[in-house]
Amino acid sequence: MPEVPRDEAATKHERILEYIKDLKVGARLSVRSLARKLHVSEGTAYRALKEAESAGYVSTRERIGTVRIEKKQGQRDGRLTFGDVAGIVEGQVLGGAAGLDKPLHKFVIGAMELDAMVRYIDAGSLLIVGNRENAHRRALERHAGVLITGGFGTGEDVIRLADETGLPVISSKHDTFTVASMINRAMYDRLITRKIMLLEDIVTTDSAPLTLRMSETVADYLRLRERTGFARFPVVDDRGRIVGMMTARDADGAEPDEAIEKRMTRPPVTAHPSMPVAAAAHRMTSEGIDLLPIVDRHRRLLAVVSRSDITRAMQFAGKQQPGETIDDLIWSGFTEEKRTEDALPVYVGKMTPQMSGPAGTVSEGTLLSLLTLAAKQTIREVSRRGHVVESITTYFVRPVQIEAEVRLMPRLLELSRKSAKVEMELHDEHGLAVKALAAAQMIDPL
């Protein structure tokens, strides 16, 4: 193992991180071993290990432990890793732990003769098979991982080969059909998740954002505003942690030599890189702010995002197809009735058996989703602007039967720069069945 860094100016926390970075990929580590090796408390070791995991230097998974991995990149490619699969199938890693962070692009079920099976195995794939050691060995030789079903193990020579090639061999107690279904479901869920745009997808940390220091003055703020043309700046301390925001309103009426620390707005509203763009839009609108600082788990400033950045991102995200979500399944059977140019859209569709609740009628959750989706679609068509639903009040007049033909009829009550209100009615052949009032916040570009 590498020696502990000797930089006396560094904190214990930083020394542990440097030690972890110097470990070989595949090395296993734990809080207790770090504390013992580096002569620190287990609490300090735990915090450093969590930061290393957040930074992508280690991976911790149930039943596997913590392993040094190749540093993860900021981009999310949506693929499962072998380590993800081990967790999904409740597997035990028999060998090749260094490859747990490697992505896989497909899995192959080994329910055929070996020669026929080999034609489907290539680099980055995962062979799902029972206790067939010759198949395990051939998969590793073709740069593929192995998932052994039925709780079986494998030979020592196969485990050595897995360690040499850095390709995991995983054993799961489940049968082949079960693990294939679990992996397939996870792949599909990951595809949907990949399409959800996060703040880390739209901001860059290559260059540091413009900031002010607590010790600077209002005159420094005014000079920075004049030089850049911007009016809002994060205020950071000596360690780069955000402590406030300085705006034109904060500077209004202040003496030029007055310290920023006394004029800034605190505490600042911040967000983490993993926050969805839609959630960030809602936060900025509800807080009435136009610049959102992005921070790490220690509140160190990473980047900033403006409301116009958020709006452009949401417009782009609206054009993407995220996959078949529950909302997609509910809404897929509804179409828009023909209407005149000035009329609001009316949506018609049929209640399917999958929409039923315990009582045999359409579930209240499905009806609520339908009314919400129809309200959002109406606001989108009328305003052509981004928005987020803030609240919805629903009145269930009477049950809706399965197989019933229904009409969703909206009425626009309010539409302004900041908000919208839509009244929705759901009618079946017997008349009004459900009524709702939806309120939304509008998201405007600056």
TrEMBL record:
Gene3D superfamilies assigned to the protein according to its UniProt record, in alphabetical order: CBS-domain, Hotdog Thioesterase, HprK N-terminal domain-like, Winged helix-like DNA-binding domain superfamily/Winged helix DNA-binding domain
CDD domains linked: CBS_pair_DRTGG_assoc
InterPro entries linked to this entry: CBS_dom (IPR000644), CBS_dom_sf (IPR046342), Diverse_CBS-Domain (IPR051257), DRTGG (IPR010766), HotDog_dom_sf (IPR029069), Ser_kin/Pase_Hpr-like_N_sf (IPR028979), Thioestr_dom (IPR006683), Tscrpt_reg_HTH_GntR (IPR000524)
Domain of life: Bacteria
Pfam families (UniProt xref): 4HBT, CBS, DRTGG, GntR
All copies of domain CBS, residue ranges: 203-262, 264-321
Keyword list, A-Z: CBS domain, DNA-binding, Transcription, Transcription regulation
Protein name, as recorded: YtoI
